[in-house]
Write a structure and sequence with these properties.
The structure is a homodimer. Chain A has helices at about 25-35, 90-95, 140-155, 170-175, 200, 205, 235-255; strands spanning about 20, 40, 55-60, 60-65, 80-85, 100-115, 125-135, 175-190, 215-220, 225. The first copy, chain A, has about 260 residues and is α+β, with helices and mostly antiparallel strands. Chain A has a single domain, classed as Roll (Pnp Oxidase, Chain A). In chain A, strands 1, 2, 3, 4, 5, 6, 7, 8 and 9 form a nine-stranded antiparallel sheet that branches. Chain A is globular. At the A-B interface, strand 2, strand 3, strand 6, strand 7 and helix 3 of A face strand 2, strand 3, strand 6, strand 7 and helix 3 of B. Strand 10 of chain A pairs antiparallel with strand 9 (about 215-220) of chain B.
Chain lengths: ~260, ~260
């Protein structure tokens, strides 16, 4: 049987709350592609001169150029991020003199705030994925175009085909796409109601005074605000249907995640 | 006059879209304390064996123990994060054999998706802060308690005093607080409508077919869901007022950020 999960290694094994750890391709990939923002971390060029890693917030998606219509749960995928060619992250392979730069990418969605009797038992509902891999510049033009469409449609489905495409040559030159070949990955998912210690639950003075439960949280998309130069009077259907359905989906997830398991 | 901003150094200077860079204490600190999730990155223990940095999502706040009622715009603040004493990040100083571990902390809020005529000009409205500093374990008991209250009230204001406190000795032992002494920091803020190239704006075939504008985005808090063991029938006022006011504040910010500047 083919693998359906990332291998558990020292680097990606969830140790605290092991029961929250998930390694299957489907879960890891769906978290990355559902998270609006990815955080990308890289090492300093010269740790003796400057010892700090750096994190930058980015937009990106996972996919498989060699088989774009793949089942995202069937195999490891590559992660693509893009930016202006002059930006710090996109210049990283050149700046560090490496074809492949080791990076870490985190995708996190907060799903709720869990309020327990005591601060110690407060926690959050969330879905998070952490990937480690090597970032390199995509030089193949077909792969680059495909990745740009993947990332754009990751923001708003079908947006690529509904905007002015293909990009001009100048636009393509000004944009760099980095592909992260994933070497390890894992996800961590927490849901349900807060847990409390038996001793607190038996203390009437405590239970009668402290409200416990979950505040569900989701990222809400507001009604589309046309720009001052917009000439299309009606919000197109692909966009109007998407943001409303997406809100319902997200709100439902957060609400369901708040329930006792 | 006393400094009111972090010094611009190589590490924290915003280079792409310099006009979005902000260094003042007030902006950096308010982004960190408004973001629900912080991403914390650290270096590998032995880069020759494992070359990857790692990012973990965390909860935390900035504050000043020596002067808790400070004006957050008046001086640099320390960043506090907490976790179970056995967790990877909390064990980091011990595991790396360092009293002070170099870390990077990122706080990001997505405020909108900007849809331009061409994918190249798509972008996002956001507020982000990136801090570099040294993380060390807080050993002073008074500072540790104060930091735990700061972090808990950062999740939901006034929650600390409205839960079962003080923590037991076992709870305090099981919890570690890391303090990050910030050595450099900057913020990047983008708002407004999408920008388009003159050539596209003059092309009637393009402008008549592509809707442009902003989808405002904010993190929405849902109605409190009581846990199965909750005994307080009515959601307390400090909580009920907060989540509703917070939603209004966040929604208003995202909506206002979508307007032409």
């Amino acid at each position: 049987m083919a693998d359906t999960a990332y291998t558990k290694e020292t680097r990606n094994t969830v140790r605290r709350h092991r029961e929250r750890g998930q390694y299957d391709f489907a879960t890891v990939h769906s978290i990355v592609n559902q998270a609006s923002i990815l955080h990308v971390s890289f090492l300093p060029t010269d740790p003796l001169e400057d010892p700090f890693p750096t994190i930058l917030p980015m937009i990106g998606s996972v996919g498989l150029f060699s088989n774009p219509d793949n089942d995202p749960g069937a195999q490891p995928l590559d992660l693509y991020i893009h930016g202006h060619s002059a930006s710090r992250l996109m210049r990283l392979p050149t700046a560090q003199g490496l074809e492949q730069v080791p990076v870490c990418v985190a995708a996190t969605m907060l799903d709720g705030i869990k309020l327990a009797l005591t601060p110690f038992n407060h926690s959050c509902n969330y879905r998070s994925a952490v990937l480690h891999g090597y970032a390199s510049i995509v030089t193949d033009e077909a792969e680059k175009s495909w990745a740009l469409a993947l990332i754009t449609d990751g923001l708003v489905p079908d947006r690529w085909d509904n905007s002015r495409v293909p990009p001009t040559k100048a636009e393509m030159t000004s944009t760099t796409v980095l592909k992260v070949s994933v070497v390890s990955a894992s996800a961590k998912v927490n849901s349900g109601e807060p847990g409390d210690d038996r001793k607190d639950l038996k203390d009437d003075a405590v239970t009668s005074s402290v409200w416990t439960g979950v505040l569900p949280v989701h990222e809400q998309i507001g009604a589309p605000q046309p720009s001052s130069t917009n000439k299309v009077a009606k919000v197109p259907q692909y966009l109007d249907q998407w943001w409303q359905a997406e809100n319902t989906k997200r709100e439902t997830y957060a609400h369901d995640a708040s329930r006792p398991k």
